[in-house]
Fold each of these.
Amino acid sequence: MSSELSRGEETSPVQSSDSNDVAAGFSLRNERETITVAVAGNPNSGKSTLINAIAGTRLYVGNWPGVTVEKKSAVFEHEGRKIKLVDLPGTYSLSPYTQEEIIARDYLVREKPDVIINVVDATNIERNLYLTVQLLELGIPLVIALNIYDEAEQKGYKINTMAMEEMLGVKVVPTVATKKSGLNELLKVVTKVVDNPSRYTPKHLNYGEDIESAAVSVQGHIMKQNPSLNNKYPLRWLAFKLMEGDSHVMEEASLKIDDAFVEKATIHLKKAHGDDIESIMADERYALASGLTREVVKRPEVRKMEITEKIDRVVLNRFLGIPVFLAAMWIVFKFTFDLSQPFGDWIDGATAGPISRLAAKAITAVNGPLWVASLTTEGVIAGVGFVLAFVPVIFAMMFFITFLEGSGYMARAAFVMDRAMHSMGLHGKSFIPMLLGFGCNVPGIYATRTLENPRDKALTALLLPLMSCGARLPVYVVFIGAFFSAHAGTVLWSMYVMGIALAVLMGVIFKRTLFRGESPMFIMELPPYRMPSLKSLMIHTWEKGKHFLIKAGTYIFAVSILVWFLLNLPWGVENKKDSYLGKAGQVIAPALAPIGFGNWEAASSLVTGLIAKEIVVGSMAEIYAVQQEDEETTTVSDDLKEIGSSFLTAVRDSFRNVFATLGIASISAEEDEGASGLKTVIQKTFTPLTAYAFMAFVLLYMPCVVVAIAMKHEFGSWKWFGVAFAYQMGLAWVVAMIIYQGGRILGIG
Amino acid sequence: MSPLGLLSKGEKAEVVEIRIQKGYCQGTGKNQACHAEDMGLRTGKVIEMLNNGGGGPILLKVDESRIAISRGMAMKIMVKKTGCRD
Ligand SMILES: Nc1nc2c(ncn2[C@@H]2O[C@H](COP(=O)(O)OP(=O)(O)OP(=O)(O)O)[C@@H](O)[C@H]2O)c(=O)[nH]1
Ligand SMILES: [Mg+2]
């Protein structure tokens, strides 16, 4: 299984401020190795938020269940000792059925952390304690972080933490991870427990006479048969698992067990309560949890209708649900485009104009050869700069996706789309990875892990590349800017909707061919709506967007240089058409003729886009070698001034656009004065019709290299990537062909 | 006694029987239990229907959480009505 992914470990050492005042007497003990703290709890209870707040990390957080699918750790220093916090995927129980449960359970049992922080959602104590009861069986010292305490207080709950400590025999610390409150106290308690583990071994909760006596005799039997196991596993827990018939554990511990003995030990239990010991145990645990809850929580008599319910009435309404979803998406894309476009133009203008000139001047100043100047300006600056121009739009998109994730709408979209997903033999839960795919397909692929069924997982991953990711935005932006600027938001939105619609279509086809059968039923928790804080929005937007920056600085940079060489080799080639890349483009171009862009320039840039789709526009910029017509000589300070003043214009335009969207101010579709060179060139070589066909082709034509690797990673073979590659190429060609030929018949373009 | 899926919005009911074969929710393995019970949807619990429109999934209030379940599953959970929300 893939629980040891390379991306799994994320560490960020943070020096705690009060690390100096360690009493000398402690120093001996402080020298012991790292303290390992496992953080476990229900999904969406705030585990990752808590770790981020304590250790200063930036683990992935979102307001929907199943954000963390991989265990991750954060190391930091506290009072001179190293503490390693391990973020486990959220689970409702420790049964060995879902991948998350297995990851969490295997970690707890195998790695034996020094202490468990059990994050309990204070607004939903009963269900959370059901897991707590199971965690206590492991015999590992445990501290409860009673998180989301703020919301519990708001609802008027009175929680008697003292009684809770008393009954469970563990420490309970109220926390509000989002506001960093209670965390010092939590750490204090954790270190106290670590220093004195024997004083804080958890109580054995009483499971009732019948279960207890059966467990005692099974324990005795295990000891006799497997003396070597004594310290490897908590004995009581092992006995419980044996009684429940947990084959995973028996194999793992390679237990030597006389089945007849277990049978005999549980015979009384079965007589009294029925055959299904697993259910009997579950009922008992649940009874303990609800009994405890009754004792410690006081709820107000009258319950107010919560805001969440009010919003859900509209958002989940049977007629309004899908229109609301589509409208929300439209607003997102409109804002994304309007907000970021001026900044993108600014970067584009700055790199194509002043920065190129500055670089050229610098190279001539040091007497660099002409080809170096050309490589720098036409290769690196045109290629990378061109992609960088789309950083604003990508970040804007990531911002809105982060907002959707943090608000709680994500799970609602899954609910609303459930029926559409059924038509392709999937259910609503599969829609969450797909929505994440709008940011970047790669995290979407990893998110398929929350789908328990291997069939669902593979089918979802296969359809996911049809979700238009951030890397495809640059292509749309260039073409929309050149041809559809009056309806930018709507055209952009149509690309995303096209992706979803084709995913449904392909899903229906796959359901009849490769993936027969029904998906099992689904169950999913819908979190309360929450307002994400601006700070966390910024952090997680950055975390998502930075990958695009890194890409621009690494392989897009490399590819830009490569493309320049391919365009200039054989050395001294007169016409780019005769360069290696040009020749390759010419070979492919005829295949693209029926779909509207059978020229070598388009073909060559599509080839380079196999690495990453942003590269398509970068390469186009290089191929068309957008010449700056300005011959007038500028001084260095002119260039710098130009960059500055055009930035201010960008800020102004961005604001104006937003207000125009909101209808507060209305500006006429504004002049596009400095329409950058590339836009002008493609206006000559494309028509609106072929431009739209080209955009559709780029949306569909294949998953990028990183997605390919992620698919290999998740599924252990190249098979699904191969399938995705093949069907997407076909689909892209067919769809572009329909758009182009259909449009021609209708007399458009 | 009636299937959960037939409750209308605002109605409350006590879960009487969950007729879901173990393993139905989680796919392949033969010995798989259903998440529903781990999430608090178990016999004896009083739940409230929050949303039951058309053929899509339904939304329940179980304890303090909102739980969406697919219609097919809702039809296999038997409940006894206990009244409406006032
Ligand atoms: N009001 C409030 N919200 C919180 C608190 N702690 C976390 N949250 C919010 O709860 C949501 C879930 O937080 P996460 O940290 O992603 O939860 P998790 O337990 O890691 O979830 P999984 O990874 O899915 O298991 C986020 O929207 C947080 O902002 C808290 O103390 N108070
Ligand atoms: Mg998490």
Amino acid sequence: MEAVVFVFSLLDCCALIFLSVYFIITLSDLECDYINARSCCSKLNKWVIPELIGHTIVTVLMLISLHWFIFLLNLPVATWNIYRFIMVPSGNMGVFDPTEIHNRGQLKSHMKEAMIKLGFHLLCFFMYLYSMILALIND
Amino acid sequence: MQVSSAYGLHPQNYIAPSGHYSQGPGKMTSLPSESQCGDYYSGLYTVPTQNVVTPSTVNQQPGAQQMYGRGPPAPHIVGSTSGSFQGAASSASHLYTSASQPYSFVNHYNNPVMYSANSSATSQGFPSTCGNYAMSTVSNAAYPNVSYRSLPAGDPYGQMFTSQNVLTVRPLKDSSFSGHNTPISHPSPLPPPPSQQHQQQQSLSGYNTLSWSAPGLQSTQDSLIRNHTGSLDTDSNNPTHTDSLSCPVMQNVQPPKPSPVVSTVLSGTSSTRTPPAANHPVKPVASVPQPAELLQQKGMQHGEYVNNQASSAPSPLSSASDDEEEEDEDEEAGVDSSSTTSSASPMPNSYDALEGGSYPDMLSSSASSPAPDPAPEPDPVPTLASAVPQPTKMAKPFGYGYPTLQPGYQNATAPLNSGVQSSSPVYSGFQHYAQYPGMNQLSSSLGGLSLQSSPQPDSLRPVNLTQERNILPMTPIWAPVPNLNVDLRKLNCSPDSFRCTLTNIPQTQALLNKAKLPLGLLLHPFRDLTQLPVITSNTIVRCRSCRTYINPFVSFIDQRRWKCNLCYRVNDVPEEFMYNPLTRSYGEPHKRPEVQNSTVEFIASSDYMLRPPQPAVYLFVLDVSHNAVEAGYLTVLCQSLLENLDKLPGDSRTRIGFMTFDSTIHFYNLQEGLSQPQMLIVSDIDDVFLPTPPDSLLVNLYESKELIKDLLNALPNMFTNTRETHSALGPALQAAFKLMSPTGGRVSVFQTQLPSIGAGLLQSREDPNQRSSTKVVQHLGPATDFYKKLALDCSGQQTAVDLFLLSSQYSDLASLACISKYSAGCIYYYPSFHYTHNPSQAEKLHKDLKRYLTRKIGFEAVMRIRCTKGLSMHTFHGNFFVRSTDLLSLANINPDAGFAVQLSIEENLTDTSLVCFQTALLYTSSKGERRIRVHTLCLPVVSSLADVYAGVDVQAAICLLANMAVDRSVSSSLSDARDALVNAVVDSLSAYGSTVSNLQHSALIAPSSLKLFPLYVLALLKQKAFRTGTSTRLDDRVYAMCQIKSQPLVHLMKMIHPNLYRIDRLTDEGAIHVNDRVVPQPPLQKLSAEKLTREGAFLMDCGYVFYIWIGKSCDNNFIEDVLGYPNFASIPQKMTHLPELDTLPSERARSFITWLRDSRPLSPLLHVVKDESPATTEFFQHLIEDRTEAAFSYYEFLLHIQQQICK
């Protein structure tokens, strides 16, 4: 059973890693003027909710399967995702707003955030991998 | 002298009211036409030859020397400038028609004002003929090429070139040129009569220039006062121009030439002039002309001296008459001269060092040069040296003595340097010179040095804020002049178009952080300009890596290469650029107009278009719900449209369309051939569609004019009985977007209430009880992203939406404004508009519409702002969409739009002493032309905190802070924004107190440059946008914020800190003349009730509204003469006009008010406020130095700041 949980987490984590990489690539495209702010933001906003859901599921899964350490590790990031999503002002077009992304260094902070998430997901990936193998051996 | 003439012209450029491009042919009167023709040709002929000619010709000319004695200026200028028309034209215009003619077409841009300026010369004691004469020539000159377009590169170069003259004064070449020219110009028989007159009046050769320069100066000053544009820098520059100008040219463009010569001569002159320059800015108005004149005289004579020598000296070398030969020789000559300077002449140390640093290429070129002609060097040394130390005396002896000097002139350079070293004043001049070449290499320490000697120190004078009661100056505050060397300063962009909050850029981000001041730019890129060089060429020269447009601040490494001043890449000069269409000469890329003007406009080729230029398309979307009909704006609008239909900017393809909406959307088929307009109603607002093809809804203005007029006449009465109260603004906008998307254009939306059905409907969010809350102000941001999305769609289709909100109730401007904000439109708000109950609003709408409909417009615009490597832009303010990091997408650009940019320093700027900023605005004019308007601003880099403080432009800083505060209040909260504003003062003053001034800490000390900072911040805190505690309607507040974001600095400053004048005792003292009207200039009063006396009458200029406050015991004479009522009691409560009375006080008051009105795009309302009437509260709200229930007085605010600092 535990193995199944970690296999699922592993897959989910892979998806999140790809998503982070996609965010980074798109944002750096915007930085380099390869795409304009409008298309960049509409691309990214599409994936904000999937990312949020994906990460929440893992977090909840860890809570349910009583892996406290991993749950607590995931909690801050999941909270941040939800907070960020909720706090979008009513006039904005999503977490990434094309009219503001170039202002006040938002682009940089988005980039930084995506980088941190990538690192975090990589860390999680190996953790899940280790736990999965451990679980398989135990089985 | 050339220099001086250049001065005269230069200031004028900026001055003149807009009349541009076409010159009135009527002007060409006084001159005999035949002479013109003759001269014209000869002139043309000569121009090309100039380059070629080797020095000798002068002597050959019969009586050339005499000519010099009398009227040398003309020949000089022509010769020396060789490339620059302007100078020639200007100077020539005074003297000889012949000389002026060839060049004159440059003068296209001169407009009426210029002429008046010239004529003013007469008043200064010059023979009236002279003035007239000049005028006529100028105009004539212009006349031949009426349209600037016909002359590809030529016409636009306009006046700016005059400055060039100075630059070009390189002795060797010039000498040859002048020699050559002189024959041409002089021999021409025609000129003599006028010229002789001149000459008789003043035997001194210099006099011509003198006369010229004098008027120039005067005019500048006038202009300054008049236009508000008044750039101090131009003003101040005038006197000092000479030295600096010469330097850059030398360095950049023509390494081979004997730069030393130029510099020396110039420096000499400059040294004499410098003192006045310093004075100049201080007293802008009346006093200036005289000293300037004097100085210029001297300067002129110097110049003369040089020129004469130039002409005479070269003679032995060669006499060449053949054009082609000359061309070849020209190149050679240049080389030769360089060789002389570098190799042959023994250089004083300082010079060597300089050269080594700044003129690397010179050396190399000199090495290659074949034959140096070193001979003359020794002679000039002694003479020059002697001359330099005592500049003041120079004038006469030089003028007369030149014959003896002649042989030596070539070498003047070397000697000069020595002279320079010996005498201190000269030295300073020289430093400037040194700094310039150093653009990139010289350490900024030089800049720091020059800072000490320049007029800056005053800006660092510590001011004890709590003790100095009258910190507000009596005269309007001008932008500080960047501490650049004089020629750069002169080339620099006008502060009206381009300003930086810190005119001394700190070297590192750490230094900036220490100073705690905002760093940013304020732009007004599409300002109505009177003088704009327009350039047509096949290749627009740009840096290959950063795409910067070539500008006056690039450095020319040699004839064929230039170094970008933003990214430092070395680029090739394209073949086409080597040819200067102005002078028709080859090999002088540095004299091209692009390199002579920091504001230029290019006619862009098809490379700059994504699609062929679209016609101008105007769509009007009108609210016709019950509310709108009740307010009655349709009458005003249709009236304005009917009046201005022919003045809508556009060409024959211009298209126009109308839509109205209430709960349904109505389209109007106006296609040609219909007997009357056809109304098509679409009631399906959930899925909007166009009932017919767009071609019949957007129709050609000229083909369907009758139908359009019919519609406009019918519209106001069409909906009088409507009972529809709903407003489907969202769907109407969607329909408009669909209609416009094929072409793009401008949509003008008139809305009178909250949109209540369909997409984009809004709820009322304002709680009236919270209006005067001191705590939280909510709902400053949009309620929905509908309008933002739609705006971005519009922006993508090159459509801008301008919003006119005329409502009496809350209409959620915060949400509606998005439609304009992100599509680069503009927002107008007329609270409680009603055409009968509120006639002054109706009149204001009418006037605003007139401006709105007829002003210039640019379509499909993008604006890119570039800055020197190391700086980066991170936040933009204004109405636009930031499409990529530095590209602002502007569907429309209008002349009233301002922008702001925040900057940060990413890399240290230690290896550069200058930074440049360039904005390029690419747009399609209403005539279907693709154009690029380029502004370039150059600023020095400093390394010390004191210098940073010395260069603060407090007005710009306040405007930038206001923009940032708006962002903050939307994204965070109003109280955060207010705190941030206060902290901005506290931080900067405490930083100053702790680092720069070592005075006692108990007092609140600010540098003089920042002394108004606390006052302005207090004004901001009491501004509608940011005030708390005073009842402010949400829409009013949001509108004030929109204005802060989109208004250019000049207008914004008045909104923040109104101007108060006492107008019951207007006198003509210090008055200025505008279009034959005398406009009195009363001193500014501080905004405090203590300045109001019951015996007086005061005018407050708040930008968008004027108040005239009448004291209770105001002089009855004034009330009768100006207001037309017998006494105070009989003045009505509501009075919005000053009657046109035929009395002197009335005339003065009215001319003053009209003058103030004319300076702004939107016509302000006028309220006459009687003392002790209820309306006074509104007036007193603007007295920001006084205490209100909710806010500090100025003094309390200072104490509060002091407290904060001490904490």
